[in-house]
Amino acid sequence: MTDSQQDSLQEMIAELLDGWKDFVSGTGPNLVDWRGRSEAQVATIMTLTAHVHATAAILRPAIPDELTIAHMPLVRSIFESTITIAWCDEVADAAQSLVNESARQRRALRSSLEKSRTMSEMADQISGTDWSSLPTSSSQQARYIEQRCDDVALDGAYAFYRMLSGMSHVSIETIDAYLDAESFIPGEPLSVKSNPGPISSSPAWSHLVACCLVWSGMVVNYLDKTRSRRSQLRLVARALGIRPELPVKYDAHRRGQQSTKRQR
User: Fold this and answer.
1) Contact, 69 vs 196, CB < 8 A?
2) pLDDT at 190 (0 to 100)
3) Cβ neighbours for 124, distance < 8 A, ≥ 6 positions apart
4) What pTM did the predictor assign?
5) Residues 6 or more apart from 41 whose CB is under 8 A from it?
6) Closest CA to 195 of 73, 74, 69
7) 192, β-bridge pairs
8) What are 179's strand-pairing partners?
9) Contact assessment for residue 192 and residue 179, using Cβ atoms and an 8 Å cutoff
10) Whole-angstrom Cα distance, residue 256 to residue 248?
11) Contact at 8 Å (CB) between 136 and 103?
């Protein structure tokens, strides 16, 4: 990535973050046309899009060429949230499945706390363990990110997620990032870096962050009757070389529609 391309990416991300801030300023947008989406879908879309932008704002000083391995859990969170936003928008029963999965996770947490010698008294403080299971056809997608990625028509989506996970979890990649290259010379002391330094793929991951800002922002744009950010999002998408919408596979959309019809 050339210096001019890096400057352009910085400017695009700044423009997208500022555009979102203006959009939600004051009392927030007045979303009156939900395009048939449920209240749970809209709440999920809006809050996760806010999370994408808030997280990108934290990364902004390091974009595009100063991202370190310490930043990668945040990049992964942005990507996972964006996948979920697009999925939840187009799969009618996705929000219900996320509620069910949250209840399952809370029950598992409560069980783990009950088995703890020092934290067992906290188990009763975990709410939502008694939520009734909601009817949904998307339980597996809510539980397993690989299946959620498979519902979204983005080539290599799960591969992106796996790469980000490798740099987010405790891994050899993390260990290597903090070891000095000269650390294993016989007779020499072990040297560990306090700052791992930028990763070589920082510009590429910065590009993905910008894409996620466009994709998540465009989902919200369609909930806004005035389409106030449409032009901005389309212009940036064109500059990034992507489509402004992150599509979901028809089979996933149809699965959610059929499940919702059976509930009526």
Assistant:
1) yes
2) 80
3) none
4) 0.91
5) 34, 88, 89, 92, 94, 95
6) 69
7) 179
8) 192
9) yes
10) 12
11) no
Give the model confidence (pLDDT) of 66-109 as tens digits: 999 999 999 999 999 999 999 999 999 999 999 999 999 999 99
Helical H runs in the chain? 3-23, 39-59, 72-90, 94-115, 139-143, 145-151, 157-166, 172-178, 202-221, 230-240, 250-263
With bands split at pLDDT 50, 70 and 90, how would you rate the model's confidence at 133? confident
Tell me what the mean pLDDT of segment 190-218 comes to.
94
Indicate the pLDDT class of residue 191, thresholds 50, 70 and 90. confident
User: In this structure, what token pair is assigned to residue 19?
Assistant: 């555009």
Token pair recorded at residue 103: 């209840």
Higher pLDDT, 198 or 258: 198
Nearest to 174 by CA among 165, 185, 183, 182: 165
Three-state DSSP at 33 gives coil
Burial 89-122 (b: 16+ CB within 10 A, else e): bbbbbbbbbbbbbebbebeeebeebeeeeeeeee
Whole-angstrom distance, CA of residue 218 vs CA of residue 234: 9
Query: What are 42-76's pLDDT values in tens digits?
Result: 999 999 999 999 999 999 999 999 999 999 999 99
CB atoms within 10 A of CB 17: 17
Q: pLDDT class for 28, splitting at 50, 70, 90?
A: low
Angle between the N-to-C axes of helices 72-90 and 39-59, in degrees from 0 to 180, rounded to the nearest 10: 160
Nearest to 201 by CA among 146, 160, 171, 243: 160
- Measured between alpha carbons, how far is 110 from 104 in angstroms, rounded to an integer? 10
Cα(75)–Cα(205) distance, integer angstroms: 7
